[in-house]
Amino acid sequence: KGKKRTHSSDSDADTDEAPATKQHRGRPKGSSNFSGPDITQLLVCTERVLPVGGKGWKEVTASYNKWAVESNRPERDTRSLESKFKLLVKAKKPTGHGVCPSEVKDAKRIDRAINEKVVIRPLDDSDIGALSSDDSIEVLNPKVAKVRTAVARRAPTPPLRRKSRTNAPDVMSKLVSSFDPEAQQALQEQRAQHSFQTTQLLALNQQLRDANATAESLRNRLAEVERARDRAELKLELYGPAPLAGSGSGHPGKSRAQYVADEYPDLVRRGGKIRCETIYPEGGGCVEWITDTEDSDKENFDPSSSSSSSFLPSFGSSFGSSGLD
Predict the structure, then answer these.
(1) H/E element, 41
(2) Distances (CA, A) of 257 to 250, 277, 322
(3) Which strands, in side-by-side order, build the sheet including 285-291?
(4) Are 76 and 68 in contact (CB under 8 A)?
(5) Cα separation of 67 and 76, whole Å?
(6) What is the DSSP-derived secondary structure letter of residue 243?
(7) CA gap 297, 314 in Å, rounded
(8) In angstroms, what is the C-alpha Rg of the chain?
(9) What is residue 223's DSSP assignment?
(10) Are 46 and 60 in contact (CB under 8 A)?
(11) Which of these, 71, 66, 15, 17, lies nearest to 45 by C-alpha position?
């Protein structure tokens, strides 16, 4: 038992030697509170400047710190001086027969002077500028607004609307009609008819699209046939009346090219080919070069071809101006 007590006393001694460190809050070390002369000098500087905003309190701080250096007192910042002054202004009147401190009275008096400075400020002629004489100033009588008294009136209340109550027989009849097999069958037939009409409408739309595509294809083919017809008519106009070479009718001894040159003197002939230009009424044109099979390019003919086909001219098939032009 004695050893246990000795051990416990040793542990107590160890705990006493190493106490836990605690952080204390408050003013920093070395700072001092406002004394009587400090408060008096603060009130003197504030009354001299009458600060309204931050600039004024900076002037108060500069004046106070100058005095503090000369009087060997700690310097204060702007926030500390402003807080101390406002604390004095907001001090309440002591209860009972207490006497209000003189610094509190002075602080309240200076605060009233600051408020008067904010509301009323003296005007300087240099700031206003040159003004006209007082005779030119027209004094207008201010309009006094009429005071209207409020009259209490009772607001009309809308009449109460009673909710309509559904009769029980009506509800039962609706339920019976909704579960009626005939009504359900009629509803199904109506839905089937609507679906059939929708399908038929889609099929008609598809047929219409196919018909439009067929009509467009036929129009294109018709245009191609018309162009082929125009080319055939042109060939007929150029070579229809021309006689065949070696035949007894017409002009004997003349070739096809000579006959065409005599009949159509305005045609352009170049390298054994005749230029033929056609202009269509709807716009555009066609230039063709016609080659005479008797006078030029004889080496290009096939000997196995018939004699009648050797007299047929070759035509260009391209539309527009040719590169030989």
Answers:
(1) helix 36-49
(2) 14, 17, 21
(3) 268-270, 273-279, 285-291
(4) yes
(5) 11
(6) P
(7) 11
(8) 61
(9) H
(10) yes
(11) 66
Indicate the residue type of 290: I
Kindly give the parts of the chain with pLDDT less than 70.
Answer: 1-32, 120-145, 160-167, 240-267, 272, 292-325
Spatial separation of the C-alpha atoms in residues 101 and 94, rounded to whole Å: 9
- Token pair in block for residue 36: 């009587």
pLDDT tens digits for range 249-294 = 445 555 665 666 666 666 677 776 777 777 777 777 788 777 755 5
Q: What are phi and psi of 286, to 5 degrees?
A: -145, 135
| DSSP code at position 25 | P
Specify the DSSP element, H or E, that contains 172.
helix 168-178
3-state secondary structure of 110: helix
β-strand partners of 288: 276
**Cβ partners under 8 Å of residue 174, min gap 6:** none
The span from the CA of 265 to the CA of 288, in Å, is: 17
314 phi, psi to nearest 5 deg = -100, 145
CA angle, corner 56, sides to 127 and 115, nearest 5? 80
Q: Are 136 and 73 in contact (CB under 8 A)?
A: no
> With contact defined as beta carbons under 8 Å apart, do 85 and 64 qualify?
no
Using the Cα atoms of residue 87, residue 88, residue 92 and residue 96 in order, give the sign of their dihedral. positive
CA 238, chain centre distance (Å): 69
- On whether the CB atoms of residues 64 and 41 are closer than 8 A, the answer is yes
User: Looking at residue 214, what is its pLDDT?
Assistant: 94
DSSP secondary structure letters along 58-108: HHHHHHHHHHHHHTT-----HHHHHHHHHHHHTPPPPSTT----HHHHHHH
Q: Which residues contact 110 (CB under 8 A, 6 or more apart)?
A: 43, 46, 47, 50, 85
Phi, psi of 21 (to 5 degrees): -80, 135
Cα separation, 291 vs 268, whole angstroms: 12
